[in-house]
Amino acid sequence: MAFENAIITKEDDKKYKLTKIFLKYNPYDKGLPDQWYWVIDRERDCWLMKTGFFPDPEVDHGYLSKTLWTLYYQGSIIKVILDIELDEKKEIIDSIKYNTVWYLLELHPIRTFRLKTQDIIDLLAEALDVFGLDGAWDQAPNFKVKLVSKLKG
Fold first, then answer.
1. Which parts of 26-138 fold into alpha helices (H)?
2. Cβ-based neighbours of 101, under 8 Å, separated by 6 or more
3. Count of CB atoms within 10 A of residue 55's CB?
4. CB–CB of 46/123 below 8 Å?
5. Do the Cβ atoms of 102 and 148 come closer than 8 Å?
6. What is the DSSP string of 81-106?
7. What pLDDT digit, counting tens, does each position of 41-93 carry?
C-alpha cells in the first residue's frame, strides 16, 4: 500500500487523536476532522496532515503561504514547516515543469529513533506528491509536485 488522499474517519480521529492535534494549533476552528487535509499510508502507519497556519502581519485576517504540517510515523510525531510556490507559469527545476513546489523550512525534531533526516524528507516528498493539488478535495491530471529542502546544516 502507499499514501492515499483520504477523508478522516471517526476511527482515524480516535486512534491518532487528530482533533486534539489540530485544535492545538487552531483552537477556534469550527471544522470537523473529515474536512481537514491529510494523506495516509495505513500499511506503514504513517500520515501527513496540514495542522497550522501563520497569520500575515500585513494583511488583516490573512495568512502567509507557509504552513505547519504534522508528520506521523509509527508513533513518532514530527512538526514540519513548509512554504509553497504556486505559479501558473510553473516552476522549472532540472528541466521539469512543476505545478507546485514545496519548500521544507523546518523539521522538529530533525530526526527520530526510526527516521534519519533524509528518510523524513523522502516520506514528505512522497506524501506531498500524493497530496497533489489539494488533497482529497481537488486534484488535477498530470499535476507535478516537488519538495525542495531549505534545511540549514
1. 117-131
2. 84, 85, 87, 91, 93, 145, 146, 147, 148
3. 11
4. yes
5. yes
6. EEEEEEEEEEEEETTEEEEEEEEEEE
7. 999 999 999 998 887 888 888 888 899 999 999 999 999 999 987 665 556 77
DSSP for residue 128 = H
Q: Is 109 helix (H, G, I), strand (E, B) or coil?
A: coil
Contact 131, 145 (CB under 8 A): yes
State the cell numbers at 32. 470537523
pLDDT band for 135, please (50, 70, 90 cuts): confident
Show the cell assigned to 68.
505547519
